């Protein structure tokens, strides 16, 4: 696997430097403190998250897992500033989201966060190149064609830049979505079930791209998934049950995750 120094500077936006002194490391890019989220009225509503505290460190890939209804997608939405917690604090890219106006929160997400979702959200009337560059255009920033091209080459879609999304395979569309998430050199990438609709070979390639974003760009990736194989690519797995953080695993094997999820499902 190439080293950081071999990665095209046009993609990262910064030249590689010496390792940081641990004492001088910046704060974790994503921190949740006692976060709870309730949907609906207090008595009849659903408490999707219950007093969850977690930190996601620089240059790490974390998988968030749990059975259906465990609160994993709600955790991602709160951590990414897409939904506001009922109580608790979320800090994203150094900002306390409770202190931000809607406009400032939108700017923060646009400039500091990348998103890769199962639904992809590619604009059907824009080419692959235009979809990749869209976050920069929405932010009023200049788009360098060479940067788009080099990023497309990195994710294996350089020959598809003029195509429209509907002419692509599912894997090619997902690679486009990953390139779009990377174009702003975000501090954090949130991915919600990014391999759910893909075959095994394509899923492995997509996971490899997310892993490279961590290992070669030093970015923080948070993946919500139900797939133990996806979790096996992570540095850490957080496990939710009934809205609570109930377990944490470091670099687990797929069978460990499968066994844990089976046990949780049996105790619902």
CATH class: Alpha Beta
Report the mean per-residue pLDDT as an integer: 85
CATH evolutionary superfamily: P-loop containing nucleotide triphosphate hydrolases
- Profile the largest sheet: 6 strands, mixed
Helix-strand pattern: HEEEHEEHEHHHEHEHEEH
Spatial sequence of strands, sheet with the most strands: 6-7-8-3-9-10
User: What would the principal axes of the Cα set say about the shape?
Assistant: globular
What does this protein look like?
With 268 residues, the chain is of the alpha/beta class. It has one domain: Rossmann fold. It is 34% helix and 23% strand. The strands form 2 sheets. Strands 6-7-8-3-9-10 form a 6-stranded mixed beta sheet, sandwiched between helices. It has a 4-stranded antiparallel beta sheet with strand order 2-1-4-5, with helices on one face. The longest helix is centred in the last third of the chain and has 16 residues.
Describe the structure concisely for a colleague.
With 268 residues, the chain is α/β, with parallel strands linked by helices.
Name some characteristics of this structure.
four-stranded antiparallel beta sheet, six-stranded mixed beta sheet, single chain, 10 strands, alpha/beta, 268 residues, disordered N terminus, 23% strand, Rossmann fold
